[in-house]
Amino acid sequence: MEPIIEVKNLVKVFHSRGRKITAVNDVSFDVFKGEIFGMIGPNGAGKSTTFSMLTTLIKPTSGSIKVSGFNVDKQDDKIRPLIGIVPQKLSLYPLLTARENLELMGNLYNVPKKEMEEKIDYYLKLVGLEASADRFTGGFSGGMKQRLSVIAAVLHDPEILFWDEPSTGLDPQTRNVIWKLARKFNDEGKTLIFTTHYMEEADNLCDRVAVMDSGKLVALDNPEILKEKTGSTNLEEVFVRFTGEEVRD
Amino acid sequence: MTIKTELMDSLIVAKKEFKILFRKKALIIPLVLFPIIMIVFFGYGMGGTVKEAPILIVNDDTGRASSSLVQEIGSFTEKYNGDPMFSVTYTKDMSQSEAESKINDGMYKGVLIIPPEYSESATKNESTTLTLLTDSSDTTTSSIIVNYMRQLLSKTGSVSLNIPNIYGNLEYLDFLIPGVIALTVFMGSVATTGSAIAGEKEDGTLVRMLMTPISKRSVILGKTIYQLILQLGRAVILILAAYFLLGFNMNGSWLLISLVLIVFTLGGVGMGIVMSSRVEDMESFFQLNMLVTMPSMFVTGVFFPLSSVPDWMRYIAYCLPLTYAIDAMRIIMIKGQGLNAISTDLIILSLFAIVTFTAGVRLFRREA
């Protein structure tokens, strides 16, 4: 299979109040074109930091990342148009309407106006927000905001989607919608990388799952194979097997 | 990325800023009303006193009467905080226009011209007229000089005082308004730029925007374009309100005012960016903002002439960019002078803009 993301010996060190924190410690893996790739791990495992480096938001301390053949360090402006990001923190302008938020994103990605308007109408309908299109997003529920964030990240038809904890804090109905969208976008040929704390979701959706702990990649394989290897009945057991029972800070 | 796409991107940002501003109804009203309220409240009934105001006496008379008059002014002992009120320089053979140009250059706050026939008329008890020129763009000092001279000459009976108005009939309001405009633009550009960025940091929208292909430069440029339009708009509203509500005299060129305000706004925007890069949320920004803008408000001579403050305060004022913006605005709006007269101010304000902007661009990081 053809790798679309190549991560080699990735390290990220933060310096905070004189302390040195190694958030990501010598991590290497590939993500293949067209797969759904899940990242799981306890809080502080380094998932979000890895995510930020993959999405060009922060620079690695050492090691290399190639996204679609471009180097994250030097060609980040080539990478950004190819990826669509749903950040962990819902980031919509509360005083813009749903449609205006989408238009702003479309404009920033230079989507042609006519194409953009068609897509906006299509996607708003797809996620059931067409009736709220002209309302300010400040009054939206968490679920509405998340649906809007997800479609804001696909207007420019990216090759790779990065979703950081897309289902955290949502009701089962909304989570269902989100995962239906994940399947739909994947069927359209997009590669999807996401993080989650819901083992069931990772189990059901992912072609492969990466388990991270304390900045290290501790396991990476198909969920079925991981269960088989560890003799577990579900991914939750796999997770505990690799990362232990201890509660993290 | 081409310059054209960067410009287009920055216009997208500027447009978004305006859209959001017009929806913040509770913000628009104080943005416009704040400076007007300030003028109205401070504009009435504020006075002050002076110390060591430089005045020039042009004595073309050689008689005894004039020398005793000159001596009396020179030895005037009324003290203000231990300092004499006037610092007097003497000369002769100077025309009125020459004297006016000395005031224009800011060398003297007042010039008293004693005509050659003064002593002779005084001994014959004939009436004579002395000419007193004052820098009426500094209304406080000017009125104190005028009052003092009137009192002094009332003792000598037959002498009358001719006081030509170099800059028209000015009141404290005319002195106050250019300063308030500069203050408004300064506080507005620093606070709205900084708080908007701090707010966008807090709600994550700034990071979200920087995840898209837009460059850091375009984001900053977009915010700057927005600020330039906003601050110039506020200045125009303020000048028009002062004209219609308070009968303010606008003597100078709108073009020069725009030039000064554009350069100054750039500095303010840069400063807002620098300050917002040091904080993580709006609340911290506002605390920092108080610390930075409050001294400017009270030290730089918005409300009183710098000539009337103690030395240490004046030295602080000279370190603050607002001082130079106020000076430039007064020179243009009251004295109606041109580019030459404000060149030093403009150079300092340009330096301020370059320094804060460079620092702002460096500190405004893509990473959250």
UniProtKB/TrEMBL annotation, chain A:
Q: Report the family membership.
A: Belongs to the ABC transporter superfamily.
A Gene Ontology CC term for this entry? membrane
Q: Where the protein is mainly located, per its record?
A: membrane
Q: One Pfam family of this protein, by short name?
A: ABC_tran
Respond yes or no to whether keyword Nuclease is given for this record: no
Per UniProt, the keywords (alphabetical) are: ATP-binding, Membrane, Nucleotide-binding, Transmembrane, Transmembrane helix, Transport
Q: Which domain of life is it from?
A: Archaea
Domain ABC transporter, first and last residues per copy = 5-239
Extract one GO molecular function annotation from the record.
Answer: ATP hydrolysis activity
InterPro entries registered for this protein in UniProt: AAA+_ATPase, ABC_transporter-like_ATP-bd, ABC_transporter-like_CS, ABC_transporter_ATP-binding, P-loop_NTPase
Give the signal peptide range.
none
Record-given protein name: ABC transporter domain-containing protein
Membrane topology is:
Multi-pass membrane protein
Per UniProt, subcellular location reads as:
Membrane
What PANTHER family does the annotation carry? ABC TRANSPORTER ATP-BINDING PROTEIN (PTHR42711), ABC TRANSPORTER ATP-BINDING PROTEIN NATA (PTHR42711:SF5)
Automatic annotation (TrEMBL), chain B:
Q: ABC transmembrane type-2 domain spans which residues? A: 130-367
What Pfam families does the entry give? Answer: ABC2_membrane_3 (PF12698)
Q: Where in the cell is it found?
A: Cell membrane
- Entry membrane topology: Multi-pass membrane protein
Extract one GO molecular function annotation from the record: ABC-type transporter activity
User: What does the UniProt keyword field contain?
Assistant: Cell membrane, Membrane, Transmembrane, Transmembrane helix, Transport
Q: Membrane spanning segments where?
A: 26-46, 175-199, 220-246, 252-274, 286-306, 312-334, 346-364
**Cellular component terms, GO, for this chain's entry?**
ATP-binding cassette (ABC) transporter complex
Give the family from UniProt.
Belongs to the ABC-2 integral membrane protein family.
What name does UniProt use for this protein? ABC transmembrane type-2 domain-containing protein
- Tell me what organism the protein belongs to: Methanosarcina spelaei
